[in-house]
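GLTP protein: structure, please.
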Amino acid sequence: QKIRAVYDSNPTKFKTLQNILEVEKEMHGSAWPKTGATLALMWLKRGLKFMLVLLQSISDGERDEEHPNLIRVNAMKAYEIALKKYHGWMLQKLFMGSVYALPYKSDLLKALEKGKEVKEEESIEKIHQFLSRVTPILDAIYEMYIKMNAELSYKA
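Here you go.
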C-alpha cells in the first residue's frame, strides 16, 4: 500500500521503482532507506524472493522422500535463502513452527491453477515459465538496492 500510495501521489514523478527510491532518498535524508516506500519495497522484494525460491525448489523436484506431498523442505530452503538472516530468534522460531501449517504440494499446485485439476507436470511447466519471466525482474530490483546502497541488514 505504501508503494502504491507514493506512486499514486505523483505518477509522473514516480514513474519507476528507481524514481521512487531516488526521490525518497532526497526527501528523507538520513532517515532513508528506513522509511516510506523504500522500506516497504525492501520487505516486498524479500517476500517475493522467498516465494520464487519456494516455487523453484518445488519445480526442481526437491522434496522429503518420506513425505513427498509436503512442502516443508522447500519452504525451509526458501526461508534460509530469502528471510532467515533478517529475522531475530523469535521470528525464526515462529517460522519453524509455521511450516507445519503449510498446504500439501498438491493443494498448492491446485490453488495456483485456480482450482482446476491439472497434471502436476503441467503445473510445474507453468511455474518454470513464470520463474523465467519474474526472476530477472526481481534480480534487477535487488541490483538497484545494492547500487543505491538501500539494502538494510537489521533483524526484525
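Notes: The chain has a mean pLDDT of 96.
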